[in-house]
Write a structure and sequence with these properties.
This protein is mainly α. The protein folds into 2 domains: about 5-35 and about 150-200, Endonuclease Iii, domain 2 (Orthogonal Bundle), CATH 1.10.1670; about 40-140, Orthogonal Bundle (Endonuclease III, domain 1). About 60% of the residues lie in helices and about 0% in strands. It is built from 12 helices and no strands. The chain has helices spanning about 5-15, 20-25, 40-45, 55-65, 70-75, 80-85, 90-105, 120-125, 135-140, 155-165, 175-180, 185-200. The longest helix has 15 residues, at about 90-105. The radius of gyration is 18 Å and the shape is globular. The chain starts with a helix and ends in a 7-residue tail after the last helix.
């Protein structure tokens, strides 16, 4: 999204929803940014699965010393043992290698993503071992900046909606899907401000 689109989204959300208006005012000047590298974004997501942010950053630092993390070819030339030595589990080694193969052989073609709908991109991504729907949704929001992203299985989003809209009741994915309808077509922007409510720092995926 361009800065103008972001501003348009904020105006529309604030006019329609006083709670969202308060969040937008509270976090004025804060907005979503992308790392700009599709392979690196997905690789970082796999590295960070089911471990703390501190542990993920440590492993990422060691991995970056072994391979070029924006290059599928570089990762494919690294041995499984060297990837294990930076702290990746055997399962995650398989995941990151499968991701690299999907990029290297063209099964995932980021250049073609702009021509595809969200569901088509999601199907391509979840074909990679270790990538589920949540990771694909984060990619749509944080890398492609698609405006309609809404990750109903995200714990942070569930918590924010619970605290701000449901008097502490944790929503089911179905309920969260229904709640999200009020923020179309700018659900990614709404997500950003809901995440800011529960996260002390800006999320960069």
């Amino acid at each position: 999204m361009t800065p103008q689109e972001w501003e348009t989204a904020c105006v529309g959300l604030a006019e329609a929803d006083p709670v969202m208006a308060s969040l937008i005012e509270r976090f004025a000047g804060s907005r979503l940014v992308t790392r700009g590298q599709p392979f690196e974004t997905l690789l970082r997501a796999i590295v960070g699965q089911q471990i703390s942010l501190k542990a993920a950053d440590a492993i990422w630092g060691r991995l970056s010393a072994v391979v070029h993390c924006d290059s599928p070819a570089s990762l494919l030339t690294a041995s499984s043992d060297s990837l294990r030595q930076v702290g990746l589990s055997a399962r995650k080694v398989g995941y990151v290698q499968d991701l690299a193969r999907h990029f290297a052989d063209g099964r995932i073609d980021p250049q073609g993503f702009q021509r595809l709908g969200d569901e088509d991109i999601t199907r391509a991504l979840v074909a990679v071992r270790g990538i589920g729907r949540w990771t694909a949704e984060m990619f749509l929001i944080f890398h492609l900046a698609r405006p309609g992203g809404w990750a109903v299985h995200d714990i942070g989003l569930q918590r924010a909606v619970s605290e701000l809209y449901l008097d502490g009741l944790r929503p089911t994915p179905a309920a969260l899907r229904e709640v999200g309808e009020r923020w179309r077509p700018w659900r990614s922007v709404a997500s950003w401000y809901l995440w800011r409510h529960v996260e002390p720092v800006e999320v960069v995926y």
